[in-house]
Amino acid sequence: METVSDMGERLAGALRDRDLAWDFVRDFAAFWGRPLEPGDGYGPDELTAAERRLGVSLPVALREAYLLFGRRRDLTSNHDTLLAPDRLYVSDGALVYRVENQGCAFWGVPLTDLEREDPGTVIRTDLADKSQERWEPWEPSLSSAGVSMVMSELLQLEDGLTDHAPLVDDDLDLAEAFCELPRVGPGLRWFSGPDVLLREVDGCFLDVRGRTEEALDAVREALGADWLNY
User: Fold this and answer.
1) What DSSP letter does each residue of 37-84 carry, written as one string?
2) Model confidence, pTM
3) By residue range, what is the domain housing residue 62?
4) Burial level of 173, CB count in 10 A (0-12/13-18/19+)?
5) How confident is the model at residue 168 (pLDDT cuts 50, 70, 90)?
6) Domain count, the chain
7) Does residue 171 surpass a pLDDT of 70?
8) Residue 48 and which of 18, 85, 160, 175 are 20 to 30 A apart at CA?
């Protein structure tokens, strides 16, 4: 993941292949944060205990994610939260594995798809009228959802290398200044440049991470947005 083009190619492969997805997560964590280490994942016994408690089997892809990086909060729980195995629960026909930071949304896998190795995911929004709540399609696979989660959560790590700003300039075209990456995550567009990663959220908000403070400052000055941490 040494170049902008390399990152785009690696991400494209990660969205097609589960093994490539976990390879991408390993390299992404090392390049943009810190490398994965032994002990960053949960143990097999903890996952088996969760299955026994729930009376269901976890999809292969979800087990792999928990084993590889489930304990790394910088990759899973800076904003929204990947549930620990002992907090997984079943709700209205889906296994819930992730929750929005204010409890406004929940991500899961339909119980009918749990036998698939890498099933698609669904989302349910918390509504005042509970009778209107429904599980809706989200990511096409758990592995792509894992990639999106890791990328998104690291951009929420407040360690001096991230910043955020509303997008109020309709003329701002990020694709003119940065390389647009393959799309991962509904409503998200990703861009990268030398030592910087950017995420546009629903066309109205921008998150940026630099590998160095100098790289982050260069983006801040180039875009001239109303940065929250600058």
Assistant:
1) -TTSS--HHHHHHHHHHHTSPPPHHHHHHHHHHTT-HHHH-SSSEEPP
2) 0.94
3) 4-151
4) exposed
5) confident
6) 2
7) no
8) 18
